[in-house]
Amino acid sequence: MAFKWKEEFNLNIDEIDKQHKKLMEIGKKAYDIAILDDGYDRYDEIMTILDELLEYTKYHFEYEENMLKKYNYDHIHDQEEEHGFYVYKINEVSSREDIDDNQRKVILEIIDFLSEWISNHIMIADRKYAVFLKTV
Ligand SMILES: [Fe+2]
Ligand SMILES: [Fe+2]
């Protein structure tokens, strides 16, 4: 299941954990609608939520980057690069041309990708700065 909060995401930094949970919640909303096979066209609804996901993701990334700058984190550029890639990927969703052909399948694939990516980012890259922050 996409965008499901896991214990492994906990970095023990309250504000960051809160923001990661919120990201997962928004993503899960999109997934829950995309998975509905009720014959309704959910495209606009899903796109609205993906927009919300984009806005909140940007807010979260900026928050993280500012925090890491403040503490002179060595790997800030890796964070910035990965964040930039993800924002680009979410943005790309709205400009896809093949999305009408097999809407549900395409949207579910996109949501899966976004979920997988952010989960790995939290568990690897974000965990790395969390370990660093415990030392400063
Ligand atoms: Fe993060
Ligand atoms: Fe991050």
TrEMBL record:
Does Metal-binding appear among the keywords?
yes
Q: Matching CDD domains, A to Z?
A: Hemerythrin
Listed Pfam families: Hemerythrin (PF01814)
Keyword terms of this UniProt record: Iron, Metal-binding
- Domain of life, per the record? Bacteria
Against InterPro entries, the record matches this protein to:
Hemerythrin, Hemerythrin-like, Hemerythrin-like_sf, Hemerythrin_metal-bd
Keyword Metal-binding, does the record have it?
A: yes
* GO terms assigned for molecular function: metal ion binding
- According to the entry, every stretch annotated as the Hemerythrin-like domain falls at 13-129
Family listed: Belongs to the hemerythrin family.
Q: What is this protein called?
A: Bacteriohemerythrin
Origin species, per record, is: Clostridium coskatii
The upper taxonomy is:
Bacteria, Bacillati, Bacillota, Clostridia, Eubacteriales
